[in-house]
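The protein record passed on for reference:
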Amino acid sequence: MELRTCWKILLRRWWLVVVPVLVVALYAAATYKPPGPVYQVVMRFSAGTKPAGLSEDYDRYYPWLASEYVANGLADVARTGVFAEAVAERVGDPGLAGAIQGSIVTDSAQSVMVVYLSWPDPVQIVGVADAITAELTQNGATYFPQLTGVEPAVRRLDTPSPVALAPGLRTQLMGPAVKIGLALVVGVALALLWHYLDPTIREAKELEEVGLAVLVEIPKK
């Protein structure tokens, strides 16, 4: 079916396309509730190892280099499912593992790792942040055996302080936009289905397609 033909069909039955969109738009407007605020905690962690050598002052370059590796490595670990499951166990609700993994964003700058945690509950987010801290500071050797015996290899530098983040315009409009978009698809599908089931012949071309010759046409005006 050509695009021009589809356009004619939709124009002929435009009301089938418009009605579902209007109904859904009115319903979305009547029931719309703006999304609640999302709370975020930003925590910085220092990571490193003690100098190892002939003395504490011997060759400090390599411990500094190792600290960058530790920070980068733990930043990657904190985004994994295994880490989220461990944090959920510490929180006491293993079912939160998926939500925790999706709420953690990490970054690192030299020897400092940054964890961004977003959560809808301002009270619960502190507990999750403390569980993340405990897992990073107490259980780093589970993910990297090189950290065995190095305590503390990781130290939290910020106290978790939830900050409310207002939902962005995209977040506020996404729900209604998806509903209206689905209604538009349904309307188009109904118009095309009606045309498929309608036995009415409207154009000479349709007769020619079934092998009937058109001798004359009566104009509309």
Notes: Residues 38-165 form a domain with the Alpha-Beta Plaits fold (CATH 3.30.70). The beta strands are 38-47, 104-109, 112-119, 154-156, 163-165. The longest helix spans residues 169-197. The chain is about 55% helix and 15% strand.
